[in-house]
Amino acid sequence: MKISQLNRPSRRDFLVGIGSLAGASLLPLAGCAKSDRLRVGFMLPYTGTYAQLGVAIENGFRLALDGTGDKLAGREIDFYTVDDESNPAKATENANKLMTRDNVDVVVGTVHSGVAMGMIKVARETGTLVLIPNAGANAATGALCAPNIFRTSFSNWQPTHPLGKVMVDNGHKKAVFITWKYGAGEEALASFAEGYSAAGGTVVRELFVPFPNVEFQALLTEIASIKPDAVACFFAGGGAVKFVKDYAAAGLKDGIPLYGSGFLTEGVLAAQGDAAEGIQTTLHYANSLDNAQNRAFRSVYRQAYESEADVYAMQGYDTALLLKQALEKTGGDIADRGAVIAAMEGAVIDSPRGRWTMSKAHNPVQDFYLRRVENGDNKVVGVAWKALEDPARGCTM
Ligand code: BEZ
Predict the structure, then answer these.
(1) What atom of ligand 1 comes closest to residue 115's alpha carbon?
(2) Are 301 and 312 in contact (CB under 8 A)?
(3) How far is the C-alpha of 125 from the C-alpha of 357, rounded, in Å?
(4) Ligand 1 proximal residues by C-beta, below 6 Å
(5) pTM listed for this prediction
(6) Which residues fall within 8 angstroms of residue 379, CB to CB, at 6 or more apart?
(7) Ligand 1 centre from 136 Cα, in Å?
(8) How far apart are CA 160 and CA 370, in angstroms?
(9) Which of the residues 67, 160, 179, 247 could staple to 192 if both were Cys, CB 3.0 to 4.6 A apart?
(10) 249 Cα distance to chain centroid
(11) How far apart are CA 136 and CA 187, in angstroms?
(12) What's the CA-to-centroid distance between 68 and ligand 1, angstroms?
């Protein structure tokens, strides 16, 4: 049976409904005995500029469930879903819906770094197990690291760290960095600047657009007047489509090469069209990675959703693999907290991205690939950094 690409919204509404009923019960659910069924909460964006990312993560997660039906390591699952809208102002309220009202065993969330900061705050208070399938906020596995918080994606420090050396090796010593002004963009810039200056490059201008605005024209005019050797950036989702198209339309594409963290060209290449050709990015995944896990994952994903998997789908899939591995070690018992955490800390995931392990701070230690857009695909040029580990600044675990 095919699963629709948009994740059966009627089913999601139904499950949110279940959550509301639970919230309306006479006793607060936190602390109540839980049923035999595993309670998994998705806190993801299903609307707004990152909607496509949230859907892909949920699709990827569901792909790793046992055979038919909603089961993981033999445990039947009830799903609870909250659309966090990539809105940091609603993050604590939304996290509380899942962690306190619905009393889930584990939250899979989220995409946006600012939302992740609010979610982490609630997770540290409630002790709920949280698996972050995208948001790169450095603090999640840095200053705010905690035994119950794991990430299966990347820290914002990671994807742009190898990019500076790549650009200097390509002869670009003066770069402008442009990004949305919020945690993910600012941390991507800081890490890029660190790696770029270590390699001998200089960031000559930092340009910011408020999230999730896509009015780039004035800043593209400024880039034209600065005439840097190259531009590096962080954009993702719908905003990345608009930025890449506007960059080409402004006549910058041929004279000033465009680089970025790989989110710039993930899941959006068809919409970007010719404007994306030649863009070089660094990321922990590429569609074209030639390994057995990736071939199988992509084929099953295509069959299930009639669309192509991207990095977000892969991260959702790996999140389920991590949970599955831990549950298999504890005989499906998620309440055996110490054993679940120990299993996740020791996890080795044979992923479509290549094998990765968990750092002491609970963030993937993984390879980063250099990719170049050729004929509408992110072609792997090589490994930009082998087994890159986030420095986990401020984490005392
Ligand atoms: C973030 O906010 O952390 C983020 C969002 C989209 C892609 C990558 C990172």
Answers:
(1) 2
(2) no
(3) 27
(4) 111-113, 134-136, 156, 184, 236, 263
(5) 0.91
(6) 286, 288, 371, 372, 373
(7) 6
(8) 11
(9) 160
(10) 29
(11) 9
(12) 31
Which tokens go with 129?
């197990």
Answer left, alpha or beta for residue 385, where phi above 0 means left and psi between -120 and 50 means alpha: beta
Distance of CA 393 to the CA centre of its chain: 20
Instruction: Tell me phi and psi for residue 232, to 5 degrees.
Output: -120, 155
Contact 79, 13 (CB under 8 A): no
Which atom of ligand 1 is least distant from the CA of 183? 2
Neighbours of 104 (CB within 10 A): 27
User: Rounded distance, CA 202 to CA 196, Å?
Assistant: 7
Give the nearest ligand 1 atom to 156 CA.
Answer: 3
Q: How far apart are CA 104 and CA 29, in angstroms?
A: 10
Instruction: State the residue for tokens 């990345």.
Output: 240
Contact predicate 121/92, CB 8 Å: yes
